[in-house]
Amino acid sequence: MSDDTEKWRQIGERLQQAREYLELKQEDAAVAVGLSRSALSLVENGKRKVDAVELAKFAKVYGQSIEALTGVAETKPLPENVQALARAATELSPGDRAELLRFAEFLQLRQPRDTSRG
Questions:
Q1: Which are the contacts of 73, defined by CB distance < 8 A and separation ≥ 6?
Q2: Cβ proximity of 109 and 101 under 8 Å
Q3: In angstroms, rounded to a whole number, what is the distance separating the alpha carbons of residues 93 and 77?
Q4: What is the pLDDT along the chain (118 residues), one digit of tens a residue?
Q5: Which residue, 60, 72, 63, 25, is CA-closest to 44?
Q6: For 92, which of 20, 31, 103, 109 is 20 to 30 Å away at the CA?
C-alpha cells in the first residue's frame, strides 16, 4: 500500500470515527455534506478521495477542524450539550434536521453573539 493510499485510508477512518462519535448514520452525514451514502462509504473506507470543499463541509458538520480530520492536529472533544444535540437530531426527519441546521446557521450569524447562554 502506498503512503498516499494509507493517508486517505486514515482520513476516511477519522471521518467515520467523527460521524460515529456524533451517532450519525451514513445517510444523514452524506446528506449534510452533499454526497450520496455510497460515496460517503467509499470515503470512509479510503477508496475515494475528498476535495477541499468536501473536507470543509465534513469539518463543519462534525464540529472538527480540517487539521483534526486530516491528522495534522489532535481532535478536540465536543461539548456534552453539542453531543446531546447531535444525538437528538438523529431521531428527527430529514426535513426537521434541515430546519434545525438552518436555525443553527441563523444563530451563528446573529450579531452580537449572546455568550451568556449555555
A1: 65, 67
A2: no
A3: 26
A4: 578 889 999 999 999 999 998 889 999 999 999 999 999 999 999 999 999 999 999 999 998 889 989 988 765 677 888 888 888 888 889 899 889 888 988 887 886 655 555 4
A5: 25
A6: 109
Closest to 8 in 3D by CA, of 86, 70, 90, 66: 70
SS (H, E, C) 6-64: HHHHHHHHHHHHHHHHCCCCHHHHHHHHCCCHHHHHHHHCCCCCCCHHHHHHHHHHHCC
Cβ pair 33, 54 in contact under 8 A:
yes
Q: Which domains does the chain have, with CATH numbers?
A: 3-109 (1.10.260.40)
Angle value at C-alpha 64, between 37 and 20, nearest 5 degrees: 45
